[in-house]
Amino acid sequence: MSISDHNVVTIGEPREKWGPCPFRFYDRWLEDAESINLAREGWRNCKVTGTHGFVLSAKLKFTKEIIKRKDEQMWCQKSRVKWLKKGDRNSKIFHIMANGRMRSNYIEEIFVNGARISAPNLVKEGVRNFYESQFHNVTWRRPSIYGMNLKSLSAVERLCLEKPFSGVEVWEALSSCDGNKVLGPDGLNLNFVKSNWEWIQEDFMRFIHGFHEDSMIVKDLNKTFIDLIPKCSKPESMKDFRSISVVGSMYKILAKVLANRIKFVMNTIIGDYQMAFVKNPQILDSFVIVEEIIHLWKYDNKGSLLVKLDFKIAYDCVDHGFLDAMMREMGFGEKWRRWMQSCISTPMLSVLVNGSPTSEFGIERGLRQGDPLSPFLFNTLIEGLSSLFRKACNLGLISGASFGDNTGFYSSNRIWSTFVMLKES
């Protein structure tokens, strides 16, 4: 009698159907001249009428369908089986057998309201409801920002922010983007856009010039996926996931252009206490300073206080009206503020659960992590918090930590957390 050293192999049915998965463009298609030629001809022959944003969105959809059909033909030829039937298309068993793709970050079940659920429709509904409530606006009393002596833009800086967009500026923004990042709802990565900018450029420039005048973004161009990244090996509740927003390719180019403009005025409107997303200061300096101050406090007999604020939660709870009020007080022009409100208030969100998106819902508050504009807008908001602390220091209500030749409030600002250091007077 011998004992086998083989492992047990379990053969079962494919994972439960969670719903259709969105289209994804692969860089290997860029090497297929026939596919690119078909996409180019389809783009140029797509005749639709409407706003420039609507035309751009329609051409993206039409081009995507052409690439999908070409890909289905390729898989049909490569599989050499009869699995591809009418209606089966590009998403079932032959595709799994052909490429052996393994799904990562798979959600089998989660706890919702204390109950464990595993049915796909209930899991997707629970995840959607969680994020819909998170981005739902809540009315509460907020401190006034008047009389805080906020820094303000100059007239020249305000005009530079709102000047017409140029083709060179757009290309520089596009070139600086990673072309192979996670794909948004339109399914086309920026490598595709870069490689075919010659025939996409005209329609995109019409769209961005139209945005300059009317501040409008059509819904399809500002759709967003929320991708869930597990924090642990076996996530059981929504707190075990980190969310990242994945925006569409056309919106990302627009947001990158706007982000490149606002970053040049951040040093004008942001105080010396903030060290994230501003020129020259290094974010790691914040932690060194905090450690040094705590070390000095050990030899001080006076009481001291260190407050750590969770900025991840604050990131999702940004009030859009308060952001607009802050930008108005900082001297941003009306046109720029309309642009920002259009970018952050018009998206339709859906959450990817095992690769399949939930139904869409609107956003009433919060900033999308993954939007190139979000870090700079969040810094603008945090300047309001810094101003409140400085005002409290000036009124003698609190005393900031002292180090070197400086005294007063000190904050170490980054995306996830802030340290506020106070010392007893």
From TrEMBL:
It comes from the Eukaryota. Residues 233-397 form the Reverse transcriptase domain. The lineage of its organism: Eukaryota, Viridiplantae, Streptophyta, Embryophyta, Tracheophyta. InterPro entries: DNA/RNA_pol_sf, Retrotransposon-Effector_Assoc, RT_dom. This is Reverse transcriptase domain-containing protein. CDD domains: RT_nLTR_like (cd01650).
